[in-house]
User: Fold this.
Amino acid sequence: MTGNSLGLLAEKSTKNQIIQVLGEQWPLSVKEIHNLLVKQHSFSGSYQAVFKALKELEESNVLEKENSKFKVSYGWVKKLSSMSKIMENNLKEKSQNEVVLLKFNSFIELGKFLINDFFTEKSAKETIPCACFWNHAYPVIGASQEEHVKMKKLFSNPEHYAICANNNYLDNLTSEYTKKLGKKSITGKKFSSKIDTFIEGNKIMQVYLPKDFEEEIELIYSLTKNEKDFDMQTLLEFGSKPREIKATIFKNKELADILLTEAKQIYKKYQKENLLEAAK
Assistant:
């Protein structure tokens, strides 16, 4: 397959228009093709121009004749499909090592991305290990009913962990809610990552929170000590406040495995501590 063959599909040329016409119906005579070009593609070229293009496409094995009528060559389509598959695989292989940079305009926008895009329902169906390492558990604010339903599906995965470094009232409130949905959520446990990190399989997302954002969230979490202090309006204003939050997504199986193992070990230690406490 040559670059020219792929190019036929990219350029708006007489040849490309002929291929489009023959891709919908075949076989067709020169006259039939010319008439359809005029009718469907506002073609202004001559009959002779179409005949010349057809001959060149036939000589290039893109088209073949059948009783003096033309059709697209099956061999050419097969080669084109093969080339497309090779290109797709090359792009997939390249993307394995690429770092994707993301920018969110609010805390709620970040949360919605995690629910709707980063974590996938495939992880629950196939029990792909997932983990959240966060300094403060992100409050579930601004989520739609559909997103709450999706979270339930995501967290039904028995290998979905959430480790929160702090254990303020809001941390525990979020943790308890996600726990009810099936997530293995715990608070007050330190972890190795210094920034909020999310993992699904070998896919890793790291979130870089602005300094003023960190200070604001610390203040809100420290002031909300109990149910009396809880103010949904304050949280919604905080979550929707315009701000720039940056994140990176990349794939690294070795690092992902280390982080997932850490999440499992922290959770197992927590379970053991709970059993010992209950036995006292």
